[in-house]
Design brief:
five-stranded parallel sheet; 359 residues; binds phosphoric acid mono(formamide)ester; four-stranded parallel sheet; single chain; alpha/beta
Length: 359
């Protein structure tokens, strides 16, 4: 069964097919209307969302399909204690594909172990957000005409920003990518992305303290919101919340063809004076999200039982009853998921579900 839980569940040719189909849908929308009639998408959102949930809904409606689900788990039997696995078993009786957002990391991966229909990860905690990644890739392609060869600056909350983690993983499949990380110490990119992705795949990256020193080098500036809801300590949030703000003066230092992306919602990290700048691509990015999700639904239903489009199977989990994942927000510390691990190439043991370092 083909699911999309992590950006690396898609091969580079599969990503290319989805981006290319999204571009064809944009050019010939009428050809795809009705192509998913009699198909049903379930949107199971255990955490708030505007863009992701509504763009999935709009995407399925444009394709002529139907949508069911919940936008607040408290209105479902989750409030009576139903587990993630039982919920997807049940919803699989009603829908052909499930898009799920969950505040617990690894919840969607755990759900795939029992699901009878493809599951799309619409964001799990601060871990991963692969459909935002497809949106970002399509946006870069449309704004700049290419993805290979770009220098991209990630700015703001790189610690909890799941969209950043997922996009760096996906960019590791492209050629000549350079990454610049602009974040305060408290919000630096997690080591597992630096070591297991950038260093393992050879993406050069450097960490800097100000936007000004790198603005002129960037082809893409990827801004992010400091995610209040992920902080365990409110004082720590207050110290970093206004770390980096993009304004017209800083835009004046950038290339003429740079694209500013932001997964949104924004709070105050991009001033509204930037919105009229032609390089501000973040609202065009939102619309791209609908087209790429249309393409993803079409492709996942086409690939779901095709052995040529299976899930990556080069890893087997390590089981050790003595070890525990240290992440309180991981599925294995919240439901009866087993404590499973994977050994990385540099010998580190990480949680199978959330990638936290265990040993
Ligand atoms: N980009 C994004 O995930 O937005 P929502 O939280 O509104 O879905």
């Amino acid at each position: 069964m083909k699911h999309l839980i992590d950006p690396t569940d898609l091969t580079k040719p599969e990503i290319d097919e989805i981006i290319s189909l999204a571009q064809d849908i944009i050019a010939h929308r009428e050809r795809y209307q009705g192509s998913m009639s009699h198909k049903k998408l379930a949107t199971l959102f255990y955490e708030p969302s505007t863009r992701t949930r509504l763009s999935f809904t709009s995407a399925m409606m444009e394709l002529g399909g139907n949508v069911l689900g919940f936008s607040d788990a408290r209105s479902s039997s989750v409030s009576k204690g139903e587990s993630v696995q039982d919920t997807v078993r049940v919803v699989g009786c009603f829908a052909d594909v499930i898009a799920m957002r969950h505040h617990i990391e690894g919840a969607q991966l755990y759900a795939t172990e029992v699901s009878t229909v493809p599951i799309i990860n619409a964001g799990d905690g601060s871990h991963s957000h692969p459909t935002q990644t497809l949106t970002d890739l399509l946006t870069i392609q449309r704004e700049l005409g290419h993805i290979d060869g770009i220098t991209i600056g990630f700015c703001g909350d790189l610690r909890f920003g799941r969209t950043v983690h997922s996009l760096i993983k996906a960019l590791s499949r492209y050629k000549d990518i350079k990454v610049i990380l602009i974040a305060p110490d408290e919000l630096k990119l997690p080591d597992y992305i630096k070591q297991d992705v950038c260093e393992r795949t050879g993406i050069p990256y450097r960490e800097v303290a100000t936007m000004e020193e790198v603005m002129g080098e960037l082809d893409v500036l990827y801004m992010t919101r400091v995610q209040k809801e992920r902080f365990l300590d409110e004082d720590e949030f207050d110290r970093v919340k206004d770390s980096f703000v993009l304004d017209a003066a800083r835009m004046a230092l950038a290339k003429e063809k740079m694209a500013v992306l932001h997964p949104l919602p924004r709070v105050n990290e991009i001033l509204t004076e930037v919105d009229a700048d032609p390089r501000a691509a973040y609202f065009r990015q939102v619309e791209n999200g609908k087209f790429v999700r249309e393409a993803l639904i079409v492709k996942l239903l086409e690939w779901k039982d095709d052995p040529e489009h299976g899930m990556p199977s080069d890893e087997t989990p390590v089981e050790d009853p003595e070890l525990r994942c240290p992440n309180k927000k991981c599925i294995c510390n919240n439901e009866h998921a087993p404590h499973r691990f994977r050994r990385t190439e540099n010998g580190v043991l990480r949680c199978w579900y959330c990638d936290s370092k265990v040993r």
